[in-house]
C-alpha cells in the first residue's frame, strides 16, 4: 500500500469512527434530560383540585336494587386507604 493510500484509509477510518460518536449524546446529557422530564411541571394534572361531588350519583344509579356491602376489615379502610379510594368504593356500594 502506498503512502497516499494509507493516509486516505486513515482519513476514511477517522471520519467513519467520529460520526458515530457525534450522533450519540453523552451519558450525563441523557441523564439530565431524563430527570428534567420527571420533574412536575406547573401545567401537570393536580388531583387535589378535583371535586368528587359530581360523581356521588354513580353508586346510587348503578346499584339501586342491591344492598350496600360492608367491608369486614374496617381498620384497613380507615388507616391505609386514601380518601379517594374510599370515595370510589363508596360509589360502588361498599361501606
Write the layout of secondary structure elements.
Blueprint: H1 3-23, H2 27-38, H3 57-62, H4 74-79, H5 83-92
How would you briefly describe this protein structure?
The protein has 95 residues and is mostly helical. 58% of the residues lie in helices and 0% in strands. It has helices spanning 3-23, 27-38, 57-62, 74-79, 83-92.
Folded structure, characterized:
- With 95 residues, the protein is mainly alpha-helical.
- It has 2 domains: 1-37; 52-95, no CATH class.
- The protein has 5 helices and no strands.
- It starts with a helix and ends with a helix.
What structural category characterises the helix and strand content? mainly alpha
Number of strands: 0
Output mean pLDDT: 76
The residue fraction in helices comes out at 55-70%
End-to-end distance, in Å? 87 Å
**Number of H- or I-type helical stretches:** 5
**How many separate structural domains?**
2
Please mark out the parts with pLDDT under 50 across 5 or more consecutive residues, or reply none.
none
Strand content: under 5%
Describe the sheet with the most strands.
none
**Rg measurement, Å:** 31 Å
- Helix and strand element order: HHHHH
C-alpha geometry: rod-shaped
What key attributes describe this structure?
95 residues, mainly alpha, 2 domains, 5 helices, 58% helix, rod-shaped
Amino acid at each position: 500500500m502506498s503512502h497516499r493510500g494509507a493516509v486516505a484509509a486513515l482519513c476514511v477510518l477517522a471520519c467513519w469512527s467520529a460520526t458515530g460518536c457525534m450522533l450519540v449524546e453523552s451519558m450525563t446529557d441523557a441523564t439530565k434530560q431524563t430527570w428534567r422530564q420527571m420533574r412536575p411541571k406547573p401545567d401537570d394534572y393536580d388531583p387535589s383540585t378535583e371535586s368528587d361531588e359530581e360523581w356521588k350519583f354513580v353508586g346510587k344509579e348503578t346499584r339501586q336494587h342491591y344492598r350496600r356491602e360492608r367491608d369486614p376489615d374496617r381498620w384497613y379502610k380507615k388507616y391505609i386507604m386514601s380518601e379517594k379510594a374510599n370515595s370510589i368504593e363508596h360509589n360502588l356500594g361498599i361501606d
